[in-house]
Amino acid sequence: MPSFDLVIGGGAADFNLTRLAEVAEQRGVRVKPILHRADGEPSVSWDLGNRDLVVDGEVIEASALFSRYDVFTTPQDQEPSLDRGMAWFTQLNAWAMSKPEMGHFNRDIHHQAGLKPFTLTCAAEAGLTIPDTLISNDEAAIRGF
């Protein structure tokens, strides 16, 4: 299982994320960028049952997450009502927030109520039964689930 010091999430066109990754790697930080582009994106799935984040077929473990809401990338074929940047931001932040041991900037932010996956993990930890849930953009993972 690949282990990283820092996952960086957001849009590939975000020069701030690109620079952060460069500087972190120069300082010996093991970085895993999870970045989407206008012409494609990595396959990302998060199974709430085992808390694994799977990126391009690999389970990702990390010590910390830094993510930014992507305002730079709009796919040409994107529906106006589909906010892909928010979907990426929500998935990665909810994953990090569900792992108390993981470093996460602004962990105490108060928009958790809007992060349904995080809310479900809290409900499960409190002993409530939640439905089997997979968050994914990977059709094969969805069909297999």
Describe the model:
There is one protein chain. With 145 residues, the chain is α/β, with parallel strands linked by helices. 29% of the residues lie in helices and 26% in strands. It has 4 helices and 7 strands; from the N terminus they run E-H-E-E-E-E-H-E-H-E-H. It has helices at 15-26, 84-97, 116-125, 139-144, and strands spanning 3-11, 31-36, 44-47, 52-55, 58-67, 103-104, 134-136. Strands 1, 2, 3, 4, 5, 6 and 7 form a 7-stranded mixed beta sheet that branches. Helix 2 runs parallel beside helix 3. The chain is globular. The chain starts with a strand and ends with a helix. 25% of the residues are buried. The model has no long low-confidence stretch (mean pLDDT 85).
N- and C-termini, Cα separation: 21 Å
Shape: globular
- Fraction of helical residues: 25-40%
Mean pLDDT: 85
Largest sheet composition? 7 strands, mixed
Summing up helix and strand content along with how strands pair, one would put the structural category as alpha/beta
The strand count comes to 7
Tally of separate helices: 4
SSE order? EHEEEEHEHEH
Nearest-angstrom radius of gyration?
A: 15 Å
Strand proportion = 25-35%
User: Regions with pLDDT < 50 over 5+ consecutive residues?
Assistant: none
